[in-house]
Write a structure and sequence with these properties.
This protein is mainly α. The chain is built from ten helices and no strands.
């Protein structure tokens, strides 16, 4: 079997098995509702959720744009700040020591407690608090990934650049960044899902109601559970989109570096 065929078979297995598992779980879910094992009022059937999803598709798309916009702003902003601070920490050990407690604190910030505070601080009509929360969730994985990547360059490679009288910028471009890039994009991939989840949770606690999180809580409060689950499905799709895009970027960066 050729290498290309082996990769294709491996990719098919990586995609096929999760799909097969999902089909089995959804089938079991539907059967439990149909047989009365689970109350369909409390947990709507996949068929009822799918019907609501189709009916509410414009509203779900609009909510996904609002939540996705907040998630994207937080992901980009948090990543920029994390990469910049990680570069400072990698360049100076005292800075690393000072940032350590900050990173540890941000990693355990309770979103459910911070969201109401930020929503009140920036006003009921502002999305800024949600974007900041998404940025905070993004910061830690990107910071840690970047810091680890920046420290992966071997001392012998740096010494070689000094022998060739390379400037700091040249050493950064040819040695440090190519070594760190896979770790940076991996951190962003991990953070992408966290940004979406954090933005969704923040939408439960005040502010504009157009996002998916606010719509989920609204319909759940009205006991319209099938509709609430339809918006949950929309949130899942949004999270998958963010993850797939960042995973694609990660694969492209790895392929480009591997081809060098």
């Amino acid at each position: 079997m050729s290498a290309a065929a082996a990769r294709g078979r491996s990719l098919a297995g990586a995609i096929g098995w999760p799909i097969a598992l999902g089909v089995v779980l959804v089938g079991a879910w539907q059967a439990s509702i149909a047989t009365g094992l689970v109350d369909g009022y409390v947990l709507p059937s996949p068929g009822a959720i799918a019907a609501e999803f189709a009916e509410l598709l414009p509203a779900i798309a609009s909510g996904a744009l609002a939540t996705g916009g907040n998630s994207l702003v937080g992901l980009v902003g948090g990543s920029i700040v994390a990469i910049a601070l990680a570069a400072l920490a990698a360049a100076a050990r005292p800075v690393d020591g000072m940032l350590g407690p900050l990173v540890a604190a941000l990693a355990v910030v309770p979103i459910v407690a911070l969201a109401p505070v930020l929503n009140t601080m920036f006003g009921a009509d502002s999305q800024t608090g949600r974007q900041i929360i998404a940025g905070i969730a993004t910061f830690t994985p990107v910071f840690l990934g970047t810091l680890r990547g920046l420290r992966q360059a071997l001392p012998v490679h740096r010494d070689l650049m000094r022998v060739y009288a390379a400037s700091g910028a040249q050493a950064l471009r040819t040695v440090t960044l190519p070594t760190a890039a896979p770790h940076i994009v991996t951190g962003i991939r991990v953070a992408s899902s966290l940004a979406v989840i954090s933005a969704l949770v923040a939408e439960y606690f005040g502010g504009p109601r157009g996002g998916l999180g606010g719509l989920i809580s609204t319909y759940a409060a009205q006991s319209a559970y099938a509709r609430s689950w339809a918006f949950v499905a929309g949130a899942i799709v949004l999270g998958i989109v963010f993850y797939a895009v960042t995973a694609g970027i990660e694969a492209a960066v790895s392929a480009r570096l591997g081809a060098r």
